[in-house]
Every structure is written in structure tokens, then in C-alpha cells.
Write a structure and sequence with these properties.
Four copies of one chain form a homotetramer.
Chain A: H1 3-13, H2 43-54, E1 72-74, E2 77-79, E3 83-85, H3 91-94, H4 101-114, E4 118-121, H5 127-139, E5 145-148, H6 153-166, E6 170-174, H7 195-203, E7 209-214, H8 217-226, E8 230-234, H9 247-258, E9 263-267, H10 273-281, E10 286-289, H11 291-323
Parallel strand pairs in A: 3-4, 3-10, 4-5, 5-6, 6-7, 7-8, 8-9, 9-10
Antiparallel strand pairs in A: 1-2
Helix pairs in contact in A: 1-11, 4-5, 4-11, 5-6, 7-8, 8-9, 10-11
InterPro entries (chains A, B, C, D): Aldolase_TIM, Alpha-hydoxy_acid_DH_FMN, FMN-dep_DH, FMN_HAD
GO molecular function, one term (chains A, B, C, D): oxidoreductase activity
Keywords (chains A, B, C, D): Flavoprotein, FMN, Oxidoreductase
Chain lengths: ~350, ~350, ~350, ~350
């Protein structure tokens, strides 16, 4: 099995819910929520890709970076490359329904671990989803992170307990899901939260806590106040609010404000090695990648995920050679073309 | 009946006069006047959508806006959301002719009232149009606004009399129709008007008077001089003059000049909740939406209009949560991403 | 016969040499020289349209311009609208060959005169072309202008003599044809010319002399030195050099430098009424329109041209109402939206 | 055989590996590496074309440049036009495999020499490629340049020896190939190099030495330090790193820094005469053209290449007339439109 095979089979197995486009940029699937697209015009999904594309990089070839180190250390773990699989769920609702949630998440978890990185697993209105995700995680010694929706605090804290028992090495909350007001109709309201409410959640666990869904400097500063260990700069893949800027648009100002005070993860539109390097150069400590894990797990199970990660690792390495970066820490804004 | 059904049937029933595109942005129908498109290259229609799209919004999730209030009070009425149905007419000329003017306008009126907002009804060269529109309005206790074309003053005033009798709670004139010089060939000239001429019209009625078709700061100031209660910043849906800027392009300067001195309505390219919020943030007190009422009434009669409005209300609410706005009055330019 | 008929038949009769696109902007025909397109990537043709489109206009409705005057006086003539038909030739080479040069040019001449404006007729490597064009012009009392290619001076002057005899009321030279170096292979070299060489030509006739093909401020000033009566700001429809700016890009600086010292005509991408008004607002005294005369003469002979001009006249008038311009002289940069 | 025939046959003979698009801009083939496209999204290939297109040129017609001189002198040779054929190889891997490497490169070499310019020939992981290329070159008295990949120094120097024996009049290294880390898997590592390492290579030969793959000002200065005779500003046709700027984006700053200290060649997106002139105006001494030699040799063997070069020569001459440039040295930034 090679990468083109994985993509071809992914396209088939996703049954039209995702076209596995040559360039995954939110155009074809615009408005497909449920589905794999961005909300409304799809502009927030597209902005993630476009905002990254706006940055051009300096190609450099006269230097001695012949074998760069792509690894990082975070949350007490070593990652071969500075990448997490983002929490994406809903095989029936969003991915065409050919595979079960358990099949899908097991492939992502195993593929990530085989590929030298760690997965984040997600949560939905149906309680059993998170539980199954945690069961799958437990089979792999809990080598992953659980991301919980912004329910009422006591429910969030209850679910964190379950993640701890499954052995997750970090937990988080995708607070950017707070606009899914239709969940309230099912008696499961999600909601934005004040600093105090988030503090209560952070204080409820000894695990590193990740707050996902920060898109402004003011809220990045509030996130620091909550005591969270990390933020994810994310617009939820463009799936909750149309017409936000792209993650790479807002990342530099956020990094300028809070870099060093809190770990910064970036999530949005990252597809290949140079995208990872750009996000690091713009201020991220590591990145999340979402949709490609759906495509590759649907196309090649855990092997598909592993093949994708091997390619990505090689691509990151090549890009580091061509930009003259010895290590991830060595990546700075010298990489970015200033025009 | 659900929303995709409404759109599918709308597409069928509009018989090619409108393609009910995934994103309604004036591309497919460019030049289709008569029809549902923008004049010439369609650039003024497209500019309405593009000018709104240029503004990006700040997604915020750390706050206590858990249940925002979407309602406003205007012209002595309460609206569930800050939206009016714009005056659009001509089922035969512009909409494929499957339904009569009476059917269409009745559905729009009933759907709006059921959905918690109010309709504006329009006027054309054929006198019977306005009369039928007013008859339809009367059946619903006149719960709407009549917008009259800029005929010679005595004819305008005569028509205002009819609107008053039908019980309309406000009247207006779409002065941006003054470029339809072919109407003069039918002995029904429309024309631009001086401040004095408009004053005469405003003074002829006790109802709130709305001047529709303002696109510059200088004319917004002149509108204040006329004594009108409200302006509609509008390029007539891009249907009278090619190559104007978009409404969202000109709105901020107009709002800066006359906000508080006159009610500001914005009309152009508004499709979903975040578009409404953008227009308010840019200075509008409320907005007009046009083409979607044609699509949804043709697709699902009054029920189609109601389904659209319920979705829109939910979407506005979700967008207010995700931008941290407690109420419509609370929406200001903090919502807008400054880059 | 109505305008859609003219366009439909034009498309058929042009036999694929021109697609008579909904918006004529140089995209479909890019590179088609010979043919009706722009040279190479077609960027210079497209730039003409795009540069005009970049300018947006202020729609105004509160004023007393109820019946604007669209006429101008130039070269001792009165034109109903400030428009000339540009010199375009080559029915066999460029237009699919269905009609003869004589048929085509006669229709353009008659249609223009019937429509209240005047045609320019062109010249090619084959001497008989200009001669036939002049014969056609003579049949209509020479009510037009002859534009001659930049041959060696004695040949240019010889052809001016012929134009005088045909009764043309002005003559000119499209010096922008000087890059057609393949003509030299046929023993008919065209060439750029110095100020002195142009002076000799200007001095050889008592008719008003028009220099067509000025795209820079420095050469506009040189044109004034030559004693010519008018320049045409033109990139030859994008047909001689790829990647020039658009005419509307360079017009304002040229007008600033030489307005009042020489008559300024603008030629490039003008399609409808508001385009004419934009060019005047940017500094032109009148404009040339090219390709639409090919489409409409091929589609409806002289009647097609007349139908087009009637529409254009009505469109100019409507646009003057909607921008508040009493007369062509009254058009200034208040019309242009400043952003 | 005429040029359209060459292109038509090229399209057929390239068997889908290249579509020979109307405008060759990297869109259709994006991601096709192997193949003829740019890496990943193809953005670096596209940036080459787009960066050139951003520059517009001043068309000038009032001057005495009636017969411009298109030739230059470089590396002891006279070139009819300031153009080299870029080193492109891999008929099986990249070009559909219909012709052998020997056939292809012989056609390019002969076509170039017949057309008054010189070819560069390339190198790959398979040693026999360069050897065959050099054999082909030898048949034509070594009238060309050999460009070697950045292997370990001793291997590079060994290959330079072979090029000298074949009679090449200059040699070079495409150091931008250093990111092809998969070559290491075949026991043939390529690598970036320090100034000292490059110096060793430069000092190993008496031939002029060309360093290909410079995209930043800092590395252009380092290139001067190495003692190389020339740099090629190049992103390797966009085939090694996604999201670099275009060559025409970075060329002006590089020229400002090192012009006169080292010969500057530019390679990226050049298709026609005005593109050549733009690159010269931006600071290049001469240019490399790549893909068109593949298309035209596959479409018409050496005759196809010659036909292309004749057209290009004529196009450069016409463009020099229309921009008023007497000679290549005479081309400066007066040619560029400043907006």
C-alpha cells in the first residue's frame, strides 16, 4: 500500500462526505456541516488554508543543516514531529458512516503511535462516544489526550475523571464548540465559560489542561489567567462560525502576547511539512492536524495513518534542510519571506 | 419540510430565473435583469457579498453570554431579529412566472409574521401591483411597510395614502430606482429628487418614512435634512447601476456621519447570522434581506419563509454566543477582526 | 431584431473567432492573435477591463439631474454620446471570414451614423484595405476618421492624402502597431517614430491629427510636442504587447500631465454606460469602443450596430442620472468612489 | 511544421505528463512530482509565473529603436538572445517515457545551437544520465554547460572532470536539489553546502562556475564569497519546496545586493519575450527557460526547439521595439510600470 492508494481508498470509503481533493482547502465541501466542510460559505475553513498560504518561505541552501532533528518534547512525552492528531469524531454524522467510531479511532490511535506522535480523541452529545474513545485509548495504554466539549462544569469534570482512568496523559476542552446551540435541544447545553468557570475545571485535575478554540489576543491572555497549560489557536476547522480569520492570521499576535507563559498549539489548514514549519515560525510550539487523519484512516486504517505520518516526517525534514533549520527550536521568523 | 427541501423546490419553481446557488453571490446570474441578477457584469450585486466577506470576525469563547437576546424595537414594533424582508416584486418578469404576485407576497408576509419579523412590500410601473400588495398586507392587519417608486411627487403621495389605508406601519421610497429610465417610455417616469421634493413627501404622512437607496456620506446627510426617519443603505441589489461599491464598503463612513440622527438600515448581500452581526457592527440598526425570501417562498410558501427565519434566528443566536454579544445593542466593532 | 438576437447571431457569424461572452474581458480568447483576443497570456486585454473594474462609482439619487445631456462636440462634429467606433479590421484574418471587409465596414459606418456617432476606419499591410475602407467612408460623405499604420513617413502621408480625398474629417496613426515586426517580412515595415518624424506627418495635413497608442506620461508630453490634436490612450486592445497596464490604470496620470493641451481619447475595455462615465471621470474627453462593433455588425449588420448604440445611449443616460451628472463636461472625479 | 503543430504533437508525445496548457503556469500539474509540476500545492511553480505577471511594462512608441540588438556575450560566448535552456532531465520519470534521455537531450542541444543559444544539461541519481548527457554534448563540440547535483564534494568534482573532458564551456551545481532527501535512501545523498565546501568545488576547475538555487539576499552574498562566477536565482521550478516566493519576487533585492559582483541568471516562469525583458529589467544578466524546451523537443525534436527559439527571438525583438530598448544592456527599470 502506498500513499496514492490510501487516498484513493479514502475517497471511496468516505462515500462522498469528503472528496479527498488534490489540495484540501475547503472549497468543494463548503457549507457541508454535518459533513467534513466548513460552516456556511466555508470561509473560515478556507481562511485557515489561505492564511497559511499567504506566508512564503525563504529557501536556503548554503549552510550545514544536513540532518535536522524534527522531534519535540511536550506534556512529558517525546514526539517524532511537532504534530498531534486533532480530535475529530462522528463517523456516521460526518464521514459517510462506512466504519464505526471504534474502528476509526483505533486506527487513528495506532497509526499515530506507530508514527511517533500522539492522538487527541473527541467528545459529542452522545456520552457513549467519549467512553468508546477512551476505551480505545486505554487499549493503547492511554497514550493520548481527551478533549471534552464545554458542557456544564460538573459534566466536564466527570468526563475528565473518565479520561484520567483511561490513562490519558493530558486533557482539554474545545470551548469553540460553545456555539452549537442545537445541542441544547437535546438537553445537553454547551456554553462559553468565564475565567472562573474554566479555573474550576483546570483545578479539578492534575493532568496538563489544554484550552482549544482561542482566536484573539485578549482571550489568549484570559487563558493564561485560567491556569491552563496550553491553548489551541483554532476556529474549530471553520465548522462553528463563518467568516473568522484563519489561524495563521491571528497566531503571530497571540504568540507575541503569551509565548512562554502558556504552550501554544496551532490547528487549521496544516497539510504538509512546510505548513508545520510556518506555524512554528509564527509562534506555535506544535500543531494539530485534523482532516488528513480521517482521509488516511478511512483509506488505509492504521497503516494509512502511518504512511501519511512517514511522508509528513520526511517532508518536514526536507523542508528543514531547504530552510536551514537544525531543530524545531531553531525555527524562527528568519524562515519567513518578508517581501 | 426541511430547509434543503425548501431550497430544492425553490430551484424548481423559479424555473431557471434563479439557480438557488450554494452561496448566493451574484456570479451565476450576472447581468440577468430582468431576472434575479445584478445589472451588466453583476459587479454591484457581487460587491455586496464581497464587501461583507472582506470583514472577518473575532471568535470569542471566554465570557458569560450563554443566552443572547436577538430582538430589537423599531418603528414602534418588536422584531425577533433585526431583519426586514426587502421589497422585491415581479414574479412574471423576474421570477419565472410560476406563481402570481398575490400568492408570492402573501407567503412572504405570513412567513415573516410567523417568524417574528415584518415584510416590506414593493411597487412597480403597473399600478395594480402595489394595490394587490397592499390588499395582501391588509389581510394581515397591515403588519408591514410599503416602499413606493420615485414617481412624480403627487403620484408618490397618492400611493402613500393607499398604504396608510391598508394599515402599513411605515412607508418609504426606493429612490435608487430613479435610473430605470425605460419606465418613462410607459408614461411613468421615475426620477431623482431634491431635498425639497423629498421633504414634501415626508411631510405628507404621519407614518415613519424610509428613504431607500443611499450610498454616499453626502447623501446620507441630505437624507437627514429631509426629515426622513430612516435610510436604507442600498444599491438596489446591484440591479440599477453596475460597478458601485458594496453596501458594507460604504456603511461605516455613512454610520459615522449620521448614526443617531436617523435610523440606518443596511441592504445587500446578507445571507446568514454572522452577516447580520457584521452589518450591525458596521453601524446598521437593522438589515433588509431580499433574494432569500424569493427562494424560500417559491420553495415552501409561507412555511418555507418561516423555516428560513427559524434557521436565521438560531444562526444569529449562535453567532452572538461565539462573538460574545449579549444583545443587538451590545454589538460593536469589537466584533470585527482588525487584522 | 433585439439585442439578444444580435449577440446570438454575432456568435454564429463570427464562427468561433469570438465567443461573444456574457462579459467580454479577454479570458476566453487569451492569446488569439490572429483572432479577436489579446497577445500571449491576454493580460493586456484583461488589464483594460480589470483596470476599469477597479474603479467603483458613487451612486447618487438626491439631486435634480432628471434629463442629462449625453452629447459632446469634437473635431467640429456633434456626437450623441462621447464614443467613437475604434478602427478594427481583418474580417478574414481575425473575424472568421464570413463577411467581406466592405460589408463589415459599411455596416459599422452606417450603424454609427444612424446611432449619432462616428466611426474610425483602419489600415493593414494590404493597401487595398484602407482604400476600400475609404471608399466605404466616401459613400457616407466621409463622415469618419481614417487611422493609418506607422509605415515609412512618405507612405503614411500618401495615405493621408487618400483619406482627405475620401472626405474624412480627421486622420490619425496607430503608432502602437510598430511592434508588428513580421510586417517587415512582407516589405512593409512599421516602426516607432521620433517627435520630428511625427511632426512631419502632422504638418502634412490640415485635418485634425490623432496619435493612437500612448501609454505613458512621458510620451503623452512628447505627443503634445508633435502638434497632434489628440492622443488615444491605448494598448492596441492588448494585441501587440503582453503585460502592459490597463488603459484606466495609466489614464489619470496622463490626464493630469496633458489635459487641456491635447484632446484625450481612451480606448480599452469599455463595454457599457458606466465604463464611459468612468473614463471621462478619469480624464478622457471621449472614448473608443472596439470589439462590440465587430460583434454587433456581424450579428445584425448596420441595424445591429444601431441597436447596440441605442442601448448604450440609454445606459449612459441612466448612469448619468444615478451618478448625478448633468452633462459630459459635468463628469468629474466626484463620480469615483474613493474607498 | 509550425508552432501550433509542435505544441499539439508535444501534448501527445508527453502522454499526459504535461498538458502543454495555453498558459504554462503550474495550475493543471500542481503536485505532480514526479511529473512536470510543482511540489505539493504547486504554489512555488505558480509563484514564479505570478511574480512575473505582477510586473507590468511601459509600452512606448515615440522613439528611434527601429532595429534593436537582442544578443549578449557571456562565459566567452555570444548568444542571439539572453536565454539558456535550463537543465531538465528524466524522460521516463517525469515526461511520460516515450523518448529516451539521449533522444531528448540531443534535440535540445541541437535545437539550441541552431537557434543561437546554448543548453545546460543535467544530472541525476543514476550516474549514466550525466554521462550520456555529456556524450551528447561532446557530439556538438561541448557547446553547453553541465549542471551537477550537490553530492558529496569528491563526487561533484569527479563529475566536473567528466564535463571538462566533454568540452563544456562552463559547469555548475543545482544546490537547490539538496532537499531531495529520498536520494539518500539510494546511497546517493545530496546536501546543502557551506561556503568552504562550495569554494573547494569552485577552485577545482578553471571553467566558469554557476551556483543554481539562490533565493535570498544573504545567500547571494555568500555565493559571491565562494568565488562562483554566476548564480541562478531559482526555486528549482517549484519542485523541491512548496510556498517559496517567485523568482521575480526575490530578484530585485538580490540584484541590488550583488549586481556586478557576480553574473545573475534568473530561472522561473519565463515564457515569452516580455518576460525575458522583465527579468533583465529586474536585474538579471540572462535567463534560463525550462519546461518549454521539454514541450517543443517532444513535439518537434530539434526542429521544434528551433521553431520555438525563432518565435522567441522575434517576440523579444518586438517587445524591445515596443518598450524602446536598443540593446539588452539598455534594458533598465524604466521599462517597468510603477503604478
Amino acid at each position: 500500500m502506498n500513499f496514492p492508494d490510501v487516498l484513493r481508498d479514502g475517497r471511496l470509503n468516505l462515500r462522498g462526505s469528503c472528496s479527498v481533493c488534490r489540495v484540501c482547502d475547503g472549497t468543494v465541501c463548503s457549507g457541508e456541516v454535518p459533513g467534513m466542510g466548513g460552516k456556511g460559505t466555508g470561509s473560515s475553513f478556507k481562511a485557515n488554508v489561505l492564511s497559511l498560504n499567504k506566508y512564503k518561505v525563504n529557501m536556503r541552501t548554503i549552510h550545514d543543516v544536513k540532518d535536522p532533528d524534527t522531534s519535540i518534547h511536550l506534556f512529558g512525552k517525546t514526539l517524532d514531529i511537532p504534530v498531534f492528531a486533532a480530535p475529530v469524531s462522528g463517523t456516521t454524522l460526518n464521514m459517510g458512516g462506512k466504519f464505526t467510531e471504534e474502528e476509526y479511532i483505533s486506527w487513528v490511535i495506532k497509526g499515530c503511535l506507530d508514527g511517533g506522535i500522539y492522538p487527541m480523541v473527541g467528545d459529542t452529545a452522545v456520552d457513549s462516544f467519549l467512553i468508546k474513545n477512551l476505551e480505545a485509548l486505554k487499549k493503547f495504554d492511554g497514550q493520548g489526550i481527551a478533549i471534552i466539549k464545554p458542557w456544564e462544569n460538573k459534566n466536564v469534570i466527570e468526563k475528565i475523571r473518565k479520561a484520567e482512568k483511561a490513562g490519558a496523559f493530558a486533557v482539554g476542552m474545545d470551548i469553540d464548540a460553545c456555539g452549537l446551540i442545537t445541542l441544547a435541544l437535546h438537553g445537553k447545553p454547551v456554553m462559553p465559560k468565564t475565567v472562573e468557570e474554566i479555573k474550576e475545571i483546570v483545578d479539578s485535575t492534575n493532568l496538563p489542561f489544554i484550552l482549544k478554540g482561542i482566536m484573539t489576543v485578549d482571550e489568549a491572555k484570559l487563558a493564561v489567567e485560567t491556569g491552563a497549560d496550553a491553548i489551541v489557536v483554532s476556529n474549530h476547522g471553520g465548522r462553528v462560525l463563518d467568516h473568522t480569520p484563519g489561524v495563521a492570521d491571528v497566531l503571530p499576535a497571540i504568540a507575541k502576547a503569551v509565548k512562554g507563559k502558556i504552550t501554544i498549539l496551532a490547528d487549521g489548514g496544516i497539510r504538509n511539512g512546510i505548513d508545520v514549519i510556518k506555524m512554528i515560525a509564527l509562534g506555535a510550539d506544535a500543531v494539530l492536524i485534523g482532516r488528513p487523519f480521517v482521509m488516511t484512516s478511512f483509506g488505509g486504517q492504521d497503516e494509512g495513518v502511518k504512511i501519511y505520518l512517514d511522508r509528513l516526517k520526511s517532508d518536514i525534514k526536507s523542508a528543514m534542510v531547504l530552510t536551514g533549520c537544525k531543530s524545531i527550536e531553531d525555527i524562527d521568523d528568519r524562515v519567513l519571506y518578508k517581501g
